[in-house]
Amino acid sequence: MGQRNKSNSNSGSGSDTVHSPLVAYASMISLLTLCPPFVILLWYTMTLANGSVTQTWDYFNHNGLQSFLHIWPKPTLLAYQIIAVYAAFEAALQLLLPGETVYGPISPAGNRPVYKANGVAAYLVTLITYLALWWFGIFNPTTVYDHLGEIFSALIFGSFVFCIFLYIKGHLAPSSTDSGSSGNLIIDFYWGMELYPRIGKYFDIKVFTNCRFGMMSWAVLALTYCIKQYEENGKVSDSMLVNTTLMLVYVTKFFWWEAGYWNTMDIAHDRAGFYICWGCLVWVPSVYTSPGMYLVNHPVNLGIQLALFILVAGILCIYINYDCDRQRQEFRRTNGKCTVWGKAPSKIEASYTTTSGETKRSLLLTSGWWGLSRHFHYVPEILAAFFWTVPALFNHFLPYFYVIFLTILLFDRAKRDDDRCRSKYGKFWKLYCAKVPYRIVPGIY
Fold first, then answer.
1. Residue 201 burial by CB count (10 A; 0-12/13-18/19+): exposed, middle or buried?
2. Is the pTM of this model over 0.85?
3. What residues pair up with 362 in beta bridges, in sequence order?
4. CB-CB contact of 115 with 204 (8 Å)
5. Torsions phi, psi of 194, nearest 5?
6. How far is the C-alpha of 88 from the C-alpha of 76, rounded, in Å?
7. Which tens digit of pLDDT belongs to each residue from 104-151?
8. Rounded to 5 degrees, what angle do the CA atoms 190, 196, 201 make?
9. Distance (Å, whole) CA 385 – CA 117
10. Which of 22, 99, 175, 202 is most buried as measured by Cβ atoms within 10 A of its Cβ?
11. Are 7 and 416 in contact (CB under 8 A)?
């Protein structure tokens, strides 16, 4: 769940899986049923139980599991109003702001999506507007924090309804031929019916859910937590400043690179269902921002030296993560006629056959960052998440949940990506793996 994989895929069916059918089906049911209550448990523990899993456990131990219904906030009208205004604002920016026309990869059914690259403009307008509303006393972001449980609750239910809409739309009015049913309602709802669903000709649903709602809310909530701490204490701790700065640098990097994201697994392979859309609408705002959520009421004084060390290390990791993507994008854009680390790139020329029987050619980069391991860019991404979490220090385990979740997610995606590429490229993938033997961590895995 989230914006995390850097891979073009020839497959368009979201129901494709590298796991056994039983494991895949069990995992789908588990995520459908367990993720929503976990979001509420995470919020409750971070904001009302001092980030202590033990304290939350003791609460249930004394009051019984049925007491979970007492701590689950009811969605309120205010929560839905905040979500609706934010969603409408981001949708308007997506549609109305000018941007360069960008073409996505050709899909398995031969479709090529067209996008308007205005993510950086939307990002800047969003943050400037949010800060201006606070500065001029029009809207106080602390309202968002104070009603965060209600907002997450409203998102949980509202996003389920949205996923049902996507399921019905996929059956009745698909936007392209990259759609279809697996014949199983659970699989169709979980993985999605359409690869590129749109409302009208120009409003791309996955760009909205993944980028303009999900990733944008990450930045908006990071600012919210920072402002809340300032309003409560009259100052912002250095730990919160490091956390907020690193998360904003990461999200800024994402929007700077947004057009590249449209070539990744999230967009070019995974269909628009619960996994991607509910994940971006709910999981990203709640789980990805959780270290900052914890720091609001638990400021840590790091001191200038430690704070600067963590900040520089985090920014370096984010830059390396960006440079990995930039290196491969430049390699693809120039068809291999570029330099990688000052030298001509090492590469493998691979051919593959599409579902329509057409033979196509791809270049696989085997030098630079991509010569270290097949998914080396996941290493700095996981480390960056660690560095914006470590300002919380180690009093509690839960702030590190996102780092652990991200590590599991990326290791699983690396396997899924490798298995798909093996199926797509055949003997050329064997050559590639012989040249770049490590999957993620050079010398280890």
1. exposed
2. yes
3. 350
4. yes
5. -120, 145
6. 18
7. 988 878 889 999 999 999 999 999 999 999 999 999 999 999 999 999
8. 135
9. 26
10. 175
11. no
